[in-house]
Amino acid sequence: MIAPETLVFESSAELIETARARFVDLVVRAQEARGVASVALTGGSNGIGLLKALAADSGDICWSRVEIYWGDDRFVPATHPERNSGQAFDALLNHVAVDPSRVHVMAPSDGEFGDDIAAAARDYARLIGNDTVFDVHLLGMGGEGHVNSLFPHTAATAENVLPVVAVTDSPKPPPARLTLTFPVINASREVWFLVSGAEKAEAVAAAHDGESRDDWPCAGARGTEGTVWFLDHAAASGL
Ligand SMILES: O=C(O)[C@H](O)[C@@H](O)[C@H](O)[C@H](O)COP(=O)(O)O
């Protein structure tokens, strides 16, 4: 296993700026190598902050050749302000020339599957299939170590086969969510954690200490070519 890279910044703003520059570099290199880059986005303050920074400066990224997925989303109506996808459109996707056929939003609760969350999960799993490899999977993290909607001691966190599952009892509201699972996260070339704040320090330390993914889901996420922790000083204070 390749050792994770841990970068510590003075502020969230610096963290986001470095992540932005590295994201541009990674996506451009992926496009040079394979024509199309594939990314999984995340919500949260730094995840959306990164997208806003990219709206201001995305260098030589050719947005029409980026396949865009989400690591998780809330199973609420499409226009709900807490949808990670809606926030990503506001922050970035409405402002760059993406190819709509390459933007893969998880179904909302008022979409084609109505409130059938299991059908919505199966549909996204079909879309991901067995072959999707993200060039980078972005992750925020909760203080108890959740990533995507993979919370400690849950079936979704234990999933080792299905690429996408429905969560109906999320400990953090709203209860209904769709989430990618560890088999697909860990098939990503790179996994990047974007984490700030002292309330995240214990989980950051647990992941670096190799604790179990059941106790600390963040400890179970890694890329095949690289895992990068973008931290501010407060989040890194337990290292
Ligand atoms: O689905 C959710 O409930 C949140 O989106 C959550 O997963 C968030 O991404 C992390 O808690 C990090 O959020 P912050 O970076 O804002 O702390």
TrEMBL record:
Residues 11-229 form the Glucosamine/galactosamine-6-phosphate isomerase domain. GO terms for biological process: carbohydrate metabolic process; pentose-phosphate shunt. The keyword Glycoprotein does not apply. Pathway: Carbohydrate degradation; pentose phosphate pathway; D-ribulose 5-phosphate from D-glucose 6-phosphate (oxidative stage): step 2/3. It holds the Pfam family Glucosamine_iso. Keywords: Hydrolase. Its EC number is 3.1.1.31. It catalyses: 6-phospho-D-glucono-1,5-lactone + H2O = 6-phospho-D-gluconate + H(+). InterPro entries: 6-phosphogluconolactonase_DevB, 6PGL, Glc/Gal-6P_isomerase, NagB/RpiA_transferase-like. One of its GO terms (molecular function) is 6-phosphogluconolactonase activity. PANTHER family: 6-PHOSPHOGLUCONOLACTONASE. Belongs to the glucosamine/galactosamine-6-phosphate isomerase family. 6-phosphogluconolactonase subfamily. NCBIfam families: pgl (TIGR01198). Hydrolysis of 6-phosphogluconolactone to 6-phosphogluconate. This is 6-phosphogluconolactonase. The lineage of its organism: Bacteria, Bacillati, Actinomycetota, Actinomycetes, Mycobacteriales. The gene is pgl.
